[in-house]
Amino acid sequence: MSDASAASGSATDPENESGWSPRTKRFVALGVIVVVIVGLALPKISGSESSDDGDGGGDAPMRVDAIALQPGTVTEQTRTTGTLRADESVALTAESGGKITDIRFDEGDRVEKGALLVQINDAELRAEKQRLEHRLSLATDRAERQQRLLEEGGVSQEEYDATVNKVEVLRSELDLVEARIEKTKIRAPFSGVVGLREVSEGAYVSPQTTIATLQRTDPIKLDFSVSEQYAARVQPGQSITFSVRSLEQSLEGTVYASNTQMSADTRTLQLRARAPNPNGALRPGMFADVTVPLGEVTDAIVVPSFAVVPTLDGQRVFVAENGVAQPRNVTLGVRTDSTVQVTDGLSLRDTVITSGIQSLRTGLPIRIDTLE
């Protein structure tokens, strides 16, 4: 029996050598885990309590920049789009049909008013003119002889009057032929630049045939529209600014006319302006962004655009009041590239915070580092 007991003792599980049962070990491990979790949570709880205590006045004030509002002047304006068009433009056509015998311009030429551009065959008319000139010359000589004979009684008054009347008829017919000859000549109705021609020498043209276009582009016109609410505030003589895609600079023009009625479809008023174009950089048909000044507002409240925070119910700025940040709902007016006019919600006594806008909240203690 003693040997069996000894053998049994030597075969005891190593876990039993420590004197702890498996159940005891599980309890010990569980306790260690709980201690670790509590240890990790304590700093956060402590930090949270410390933060809560700081909200009560323990935190250092937030350092911000601000601007003291001053009265300013802003230019109220509206922006729209427009289209450039030639100051004068015409499609060159013939007044009478015929074959082109001569083209006296090159595409893109600058021509002067009255310059002959195209000649249509007028051989038949010139022959008719020569015939009438001969007949007129004979009739005129006869009338002069009959006048002398009339004074001497060698011819009756009736015969003399008939000859004089024939002279007048021939002169009228000659004038008519000359007018028809002039219709075979296509001349420039004004000084300008000729565009691309649509016909060649030898082609037959009719009054419906477009030979080319002639345009005067200096000055150039600008057509644009403004909404109904601004129609009464834009008058002839008013200056505007505009820009086109091909030029980086801003250009100036002057309104000189407006339409007599509003557009029933768009409720806008069409206006027309002129702008100098000495080098021809502006071309008809170009798209233009137009800025129309509507007047100046004096004693305006202006703040930097980045100081305004959009909210669900409008726009908001933060002002400094008694060392804390306070929100103000505002109504905006005229905008520029960097500033915006505030029409309601602020007064000239206010100090608007201009930095750390996204971190501000109601009642947050602040300290102004820079005041503009």
Mean pLDDT: 83
Largest sheet: 6 strands, antiparallel, barrel
**Count of helical stretches:** 4
Number of extended strands: 19
SSE string, helices as H and strands as E? HHEEEEEHHEEEEEEEEEEEEEE
Strand content: 35-45%
Distance between the termini: 103 Å
Major β-sheet strand ordering: 2-9-12-11-10-13
Radius of gyration: 48 Å
Low-confidence stretches: 1-18, 41-57
Shape: elongated
Helix content: 25-40%
Structural class determined from secondary elements: alpha+beta
Description:
- The chain has helices at 2-10, 22-58, 123-152, 157-182; strands at residues 62-68, 71-92, 98-103, 110-111, 116-120, 185-187, 192-194, 204-205, 212-227, 239-244, 251-258, 268-275, 287-304, 309-311, 314-321, 324-335, 339-344, 351-353, 366-371.
- It has 372 residues and is of the alpha+beta class.
- The strands form three sheets. It has a six-stranded antiparallel beta barrel. A four-stranded antiparallel sheet has the order 6-5-3-8, with no helix packed on it.
- Mean pLDDT is 83; it is low at 1-18 and 41-57.
